[in-house]
From TrEMBL:
One GO CC annotation: plasma membrane
GO molecular-function terms, A-Z: integrin binding
Protein's organism: Galemys pyrenaicus (Iberian desman)
Name of the molecule in the record: Intercellular adhesion molecule 3
Transmembrane segments: 490-511
Self-association and partners: Interacts with moesin/MSN.
Segments forming domain Ig-like: 402-478
Keywords, ordered alphabetically: Cell adhesion, Disulfide bond, Glycoprotein, Immunoglobulin domain, Membrane, Phagocytosis, Phosphoprotein, Repeat, Signal, Transmembrane, Transmembrane helix
Pfam families to which the protein is assigned, alphabetical: ICAM1_3_5_D2, ICAM_N
PANTHER family: CELL ADHESION MOLECULE TCAM-1, INTERCELLULAR ADHESION MOLECULE
Keyword Repeat: yes
Subcellular location: Membrane
Length: 551
C-alpha cells in the first residue's frame, strides 16, 4: 500500500510539472495605458499585469521617479512623477524562471502657449525689405507643429517641421518682404498649430500679438521761407515745407530762431507737408533759423541765416498840436535812439535831407488853412544792402473863431413852395461852432426839413459860437410859388445884374450885428408866434440881444 501511494504521488508530481512548464511558457505581460501622451511636468499612472498564475519577480524600469500605488497577485500599479521628456518604459514579470516584458512609449507634449512675432524694422522706407520672424520658445513634439505667417487674414507663408533632422529643429520661421505704400498700417501675426491626433491627443492653437508695419517715404530736405531781414520786436511769419513725404500728415515740425523755439502751425495736402510760425526776434545781429522735420525713425534739417536789425519809426514833434491861428510853432523830425546806425531824415516842409544823426526842423506860423494838415517825417536806413523807410505822421489842429462864409452859408436863399426845405448854413471854426438861427424871435429848426410856405419868407438871424467867440449873419429867404417858374429866369437876370451890389451888402453884413426885420403877419401866424414866444424864453432873449446890438 505504501508503495502504491508513493507511485501515485510521483505520478501526480510529474503531471503537475508537465502542466506547470506548459503554463510558464504560455504566460503574457501587458501594460496600461497602451499609448501615453503626457504634458511636460505632469504625472502618469502605469499598470503592469501578467497572465502567470504564480508570478515571480516583477516591476518597471524607468529613469522617472516612480511610486508604487497598489498591487495584486498578477498586477502592479505605479505613479511616474515629473515626466519631462520622451522615453520607453519597460514592464517585466517572471514566471517559472522565465522573464517577459512589455514596452510603453511615453510622448511628452508642450502646447504652443507663447508665440512670438518679430517685425524688423517697425518703420520701413518704401521699396526696402523688412523681416518677419516667428518662433515658439517651448513646444513639443516639434514634428507635429505648423507655423503660419499672416498679413491680416491673408496667408504669407506656412511651415511644418515633420521632415527636419532632430538636431536642427527649431520652432521658428523667417521671411523677408519688400515694403510698398499700400502695406502701411498692415497687421501681421503668426499662428501655431500642434496636432496630436496621431498620438490620441487633441489640436492645440496659439497666436502671437499683432504687429503693425509702418511705411514711410522721406527723401527730400525741408525748405525754409523767411525774409533775410527781421526787425527786432516785430512779428514775422516764417514757413517750412517738405515735399514727397509719406504719410505727410504724420510729419513733425520743430522750428527755432537761434535758441528760441517757435510754435509752428502744421498743415498738409497730398504728399506735401508744411508749417507756419510767427517769429519775434529780440536780439540784433546775425542769427540762424532752423527747421527740423521728423517722420518715424528719420529726420531732416534745414538752416537759413537771417539778420536782425532795430529800426523804430522816427520821432515827429510839433511844439503845440492845438495852436491859435497866428501862433509860431516848431516842427522837428529826429531819428529814434534805438536805430543803429543813425538814419537819414526828411521832414515835409523842410528844404533838404538831414545829415545822418542830425534832426531836421522848421518854424511854422499856424493859419486857419493849416487846420487838419498832416505833417510827415521819413527816416531812411540801409541794412544789408536794402533801403528801408519808416514814416511818422501827425495832424495839426489850428484853433480859430467861427466864420459864416458865403460859400457855405449864403445870405440869400430861394425856396420852392410846397417842397421840403432847410436853411443852408454850415459854420466854420475850431472848435466846431454851434449854430443857432431865429425867425421872428423863434428858434428855427436846422435839423428837420419843413414844407415851404409863403409864411416862411423873411429874414433869419443865425449865430455861430465856440469857445473863442461868436459871429452872426442875416439870411434872406424868398419862397417862390409854383406859378412863378416863368418869371424865375427874369429874376435870375436881375440877381446877376445886381451881383456886385449884393456882394458889397454881404461883406458889410459880415462885419456888423444882424438887424431884425419884422413883417406884418396874418392874425393866425401872429397867434402862433405868440405861443412860440411863451415856450422859448431862450430864443426871446437871443432876439432882444440882437436888437440891443442894432441888428
Amino acid at each position: 500500500a505504501i508503495c502504491f501511494v508513493w507511485v501515485l504521488w510521483s505520478s501526480l508530481w510529474h503531471v503537475r510539472l508537465i502542466i506547470s512548464g506548459a503554463t510558464e511558457e504560455l504566460f503574457e505581460v501587458s501594460i496600461w495605458p497602451h499609448q501615453a501622451l503626457v504634458k511636460s511636468g505632469q504625472s502618469l499612472m502605469v499598470n503592469c499585469s501578467t497572465t502567470c498564475l504564480d508570478p515571480g519577480p516583477s516591476g518597471i524600469e524607468t529613469f522617472f521617479k516612480k511610486t508604487p500605488l497598489s498591487r495584486g497577485p498578477q498586477w502592479k500599479e505605479f505613479l511616474l512623477e515629473d515626466v519631462t521628456e520622451n522615453s520607453i518604459l519597460q514592464c517585466f514579470f517572471s514566471c517559472g524562471g522565465i522573464q517577459k516584458d512589455a514596452s510603453l512609449g511615453i510622448t511628452v507634449y508642450e502646447p504652443p502657449e507663447q508665440v512670438i512675432l518679430e517685425l524688423q524694422p517697425a518703420w520701413v522706407a518704401v521699396d526696402d525689405a523688412f523681416t518677419l520672424k516667428c518662433h515658439v520658445p517651448t513646444v513639443a513634439p516639434l514634428e507635429n507643429l505648423t507655423l503660419t505667417l499672416l498679413q491680416g487674414s491673408q496667408e504669407l507663408h506656412r511651415k511644418n517641421f515633420m521632415n527636419l533632422a532632430v538636431d536642427t529643429q527649431r520652432a521658428e520661421i523667417t521671411i523677408n518682404v519688400r515694403a510698398q505704400r499700400e502695406d502701411d498700417r498692415c497687421n501681421f501675426s503668426c499662428h501655431a498649430e500642434l496636432d496630436l491626433s496621431s498620438h490620441g491627443g487633441e489640436l492645440f492653437h496659439g497666436s502671437s500679438a499683432i504687429k503693425v508695419l509702418r511705411i514711410f517715404e522721406f527723401s527730400q530736405n525741408p525748405r525754409i521761407s523767411v525774409s533775410p531781414l527781421l526787425e527786432v520786436g516785430m512779428a514775422e511769419t516764417v514757413s517750412c515745407e517738405v515735399a514727397r513725404v509719406f504719410p505727410a500728415k504724420e510729419a513733425m515740425f520743430y522750428m527755432f530762431l537761434g535758441d528760441q523755439e517757435l510754435s509752428p502751425l502744421f498743415s498738409w495736402k497730398g504728399d506735401t507737408a508744411w508749417a507756419n510760425a510767427t517769429v519775434r526776434a529780440m536780439d540784433t545781429g546775425d542769427q540762424e533759423l532752423s527747421c527740423l522735420v521728423s517722420l518715424g525713425p528719420t529726420e531732416q534739417k534745414a538752416r537759413k541765416p537771417v539778420h536782425v536789425y532795430s529800426f523804430p519809426p522816427p520821432v515827429l514833434e510839433i511844439e503845440e498840436l492845438y495852436p491859435l491861428a497866428g501862433t509860431d510853432i516848431n516842427v522837428t523830425c529826429s531819428g529814434h535812439v534805438l536805430t543803429s546806425p543813425s538814419p537819414t531824415l526828411r521832414l515835409q516842409g523842410a528844404p533838404d535831407f538831414s545829415v545822418p544823426g542830425e534832426p531836421v526842423w522848421f518854424l511854422l506860423t499856424a493859419r486857419e488853412e493849416d487846420d487838419g494838415r498832416n505833417f510827415s517825417c521819413e527816416a531812411f536806413l540801409e541794412v544789408q544792402g536794402q533801403q528801408l523807410i519808416k514814416t511818422t505822421t501827425i495832424q495839426l489842429h489850428v484853433l480859430y473863431k467861427p466864420r459864416l462864409e458865403e460859400s457855405s452859408c449864403p445870405g440869400n436863399q430861394t425856396w420852392v413852395e410846397g417842397t421840403e426845405e432847410m436853411l443852408a448854413c454850415i459854420p466854420k471854426g475850431n472848435p466846431a461852432p454851434a449854430l443857432l438861427c431865429t425867425w421872428d424871435s423863434v428858434i428855427f429848426s436846422l435839423e428837420v426839413p419843413q414844407k415851404a410856405t409863403q409864411n416862411h419868407a423873411g429874414t433869419y438871424c443865425c449865430t455861430a459860437t465856440n469857445q473863442l467867440g461868436s459871429v452872426s449873419k442875416e439870411i434872406a429867404v424868398v419862397v417862390q410859388g409854383l406859378n412863378e417858374g416863368i418869371n424865375s429866369t427874369i429874376f435870375v437876370i436881375i440877381i446877376v445884374a445886381l451881383g456886385v451890389g449884393v456882394i458889397a451888402i454881404v461883406l458889410y453884413l459880415n462885419y456888423r450885428p444882424c438887424k431884425t426885420r419884422r413883417r406884418k403877419l396874418p392874425y393866425q401866424q401872429k397867434e402862433k408866434g405868440r405861443k412860440r414866444k411863451e415856450k422859448n424864453h431862450f430864443a426871446v432873449e437871443h432876439a432882444e440881444k440882437c436888437s440891443a446890438q442894432n441888428c
